[in-house]
From TrEMBL:
Swiss-Prot/TrEMBL keywords: Signal
Organism from which the protein derives: Chroococcidiopsis cubana SAG 39.79
GO-annotated molecular function: acid phosphatase activity
Protein's recorded name: Metallophosphoesterase
Record has Ribosomal protein as a keyword: no
SUPFAM superfamilies attached to this UniProt entry: Metallo-dependent phosphatases (SSF56300)
InterPro entries reported in the protein's UniProt record: Calcineurin-like_PHP, Metallo-depent_PP-like, PAPs-like
One Pfam match: Metallophos
Domain Calcineurin-like phosphoesterase: 141-449
Amino acid sequence: MLTLLGVFNREPMMPAPPQLLTEPFLQLPTVNSVQVVWFTEFAGSQHAVTYGAGLKQTAIASTVKLSRTREDRESHVGAQAETGQYQNIKLRDIWRHEAKVTGLSAGVRVPYRVSSVREDGTTFSSGEYTLASLPESGTPLKILLTSDHQLKPMTAANLQKVVETVGRVDGVFFAGDLINIPDRASEWFDDNRGGAFFPCLQGRAKYEIAKTVYRGGAIAQYAPIFPAIGNHEVMGRYGSGDSLGEEFENSIPRAIAKKLYPEQTETQTEQWLKDRSFNTNTYEEIFTLPETSPGGKTYYAITFGDVRLVVLYVTNMWRSYNLTPDVRGKYQERQQDLDRPEKWGYGQVIFGEIAQGSPQYNWLEAELKSQEFQQAKYKIVMFHHPPHSLGDNIVPAYTDPVQIRDRATDGSLEAVRYEYPRAADYIIRDVVPLLETAGVQLVFYGHSHLWNRFISNNGTHFLETSNVGNTYGAAVGNKRRKVPPGNNKDYVALGNPNGLEPIVPTIAPLRGEDDKPQPYIASNDITVFSIFNTATGTISSYRFDTRFPGSDVVKFDEFAL
């Protein structure tokens, strides 16, 4: 708590934003080094980390300009509300600085701070924090399990309570959906509603609930973040909309992009194709991650203390379940677009191919046989899309949409529909059996904005702890999923469609109106976080009721791997 207050005291008292766009955050530790990253809105010079006793050692940073960060009329940034400076999509110049701090010893935390010199010669510095190299096997760690921040109302409160409850964490496993629109710069850095991504994770947020202002937690300055790609880290066709939201929603499969753009030839680059289908450019530019897999930064594995963490790219395009004729959704194209395939959405497009035989599946199969994985005390696999959930987003199945074209007797196109056979769900059919056979102890994921967990017959735990900012509810009782009528086999309206029963929390479950303990938390008032303690092998989940700012944080569930 004292550390967190210290960070608050370092914040400038003036109304202008700090000249460093972020405080530093840590990435990709090795046995004797760690990467330190921060951002500015000026190119500047002499970007450096000073560290060690007396901050007498220096690591010079390399600087790159982000290529896709932009703002638009839907941005909440600066004086947008008064001046409307972003009525159209406009590039926003942001520079990323990264320095490698070397010569570190295992288990020894070292003080550091970063500084940048603006073009006018003014130097701007961060607060002073501590960093460490990759923890050795046997090191007791506290790891935050989180996802689905998305600038949601309870995120700042959630992260503040993490620090107040368990102190400094040693790492963050983030199961996707960091923000909403990945190319909208303000969502990462300085959304003026007070809940942007980095401010929340660095104790610099300012979000009010029930007349209490929450600052988030000073977490990323001290602990490396290991993220997975969620659907909100993926942008659609570049330059294809009048707003960044329209561009975000305008994703199509790579194979369709090849057909739609006749100018495409064998000489066109991979980026050319991504720009015409979907891309993760900004996400990949912001984070420093292992790049040893065929997918580069999109999926990877790393050993962190006693944990072998395998991060997969398993997510798809969220589209509306609405079946009215004017909706381009999961199950249909809009009636007005039937004669314009370039306007089609092609259903719930899969971004991360994971079916058996795909490059990612083959890499995963090899990783699960690797010495690093086999020898790890704790084997954890993290991705975004749920294999087991009471939430809405598990339906339809994680499989390629099957397109059906309904035609009239004269051959004219009456409808374009999409089906998702549950038997072809790539996660359940292909991935989960592989993970269970390999002895994975925990599968961690998000996407549905609730807390629930499951355990398979062979002891694999499945945890969804994504009730961080808001929820869309759990499909239990009278709350049914909105699914197409007449196909109960593929579209399950209640419960977990993939069979496992949810586990009732072991310590202090919430109770329903019938006074029975509920095996989930789905609330827009109660927020949840989970901590993995590698010393004991336990995962503890905590809840905090934002309606009562002075109330205690309650540990409501705990289980051991």
